[in-house]
Amino acid sequence: MAKAVAAKPNLVQISTAYGGQKEGSAVLPRNKYTAIRDDKPPKKEDAQRPEFKVCRFTTDAIITEGSDIGTIHKVCANPECPIHHARKERPTADAAFKAEQEKRRREEAIAQATGLRVLKATSDAVPVRLMKRDLLFVTERLAAVLDERRMAIIFRLHGIGKASVGAEDAPAKLLASFLRKADESTLGRVLVAIIILQAAHSSNESAKALREAAEFYKVDVAAITAKVKEEFAAKERTQTVRKVVGKAKPSQPHAAKKAKAA
């Protein structure tokens, strides 16, 4: 063993025992390296396991402590190797990250639902002033420059059905058909909603444009926000009850065995 180490000074020295590395020792304990197996994996799926893979950090190592002293093995001792020393996130950190993501999704969903309610209440408050042909003229031309996202919001506000899959201009044609059949009151509401949507070029501007329009038409944003939160809370309670009931119900095979025993 001493001759092998002397002949190859760069030969990695390893131990088959786990634990901390002794101070000043060049010998790596078992938890500091991954031994590369020479045999073929018994199953096809086992070939994906780290011990059956060779990386660019694979090197020869000699056992100087523990069992099989003096034998040479292929190992990977590089802690930065993404194959044999992949970093694993702590379950607690992962749970906290998922909880934060869920909280953000919930807040975004509430904000989106609230914004949609406020926009609808604001557009509903628009009085009939212009003649139908004037409203149609203005609304059609503003609708023609709507992007896909804003057009989808107008569709949701007024319950317009989905366009048939295929032609690129199908949604625009569907909206144009809806506008031509709409009365003056509906055209006025669509017009104000489009103006609010077009005035917002970012998420911050969207909130500002919606707030200004709501104030102008005296829409109670606080009441709408409270209502949306109540609905989300009720939905979450219903889902929780369903999960509890689902867990409480015995599985069908278990129920069958119980009935047979009876």
Please, could you describe this protein's structure?
This protein is α/β, with parallel strands linked by helices and 262 residues long. It has 9 helices and 5 strands; from the N terminus they run αβββββαααααααα. Strands 2-1-4-5-3 form a 5-stranded mixed sheet, with no helix packed on it. The chain starts with a helix and ends with a helix. The mean pLDDT is 81.
Q: Shape, please?
A: elongated
Q: Please summarize the sheet with the most strands.
A: 5 strands, mixed
Order of helices and strands: HEEEEEHHHHHHHH
Mean pLDDT: 81
Strand order of the largest sheet: 2-1-4-5-3
What's the count of strands? 5
Low-confidence stretches: none
Report the total helices.
9
Q: Compute the gyration radius: what is it? A: 34 Å
Helix content: 40-55%
Distance between the termini: 70 Å
Count of all domains: 2
Assign the structural class, choosing from mainly alpha, mainly beta, alpha/beta, alpha+beta, or little secondary structure.
alpha/beta
Give the amount of beta strand, in percent: 5-15%
What are its keywords?
single chain; 262 residues; 2 domains; 5-stranded mixed beta sheet; 54% helix; elongated
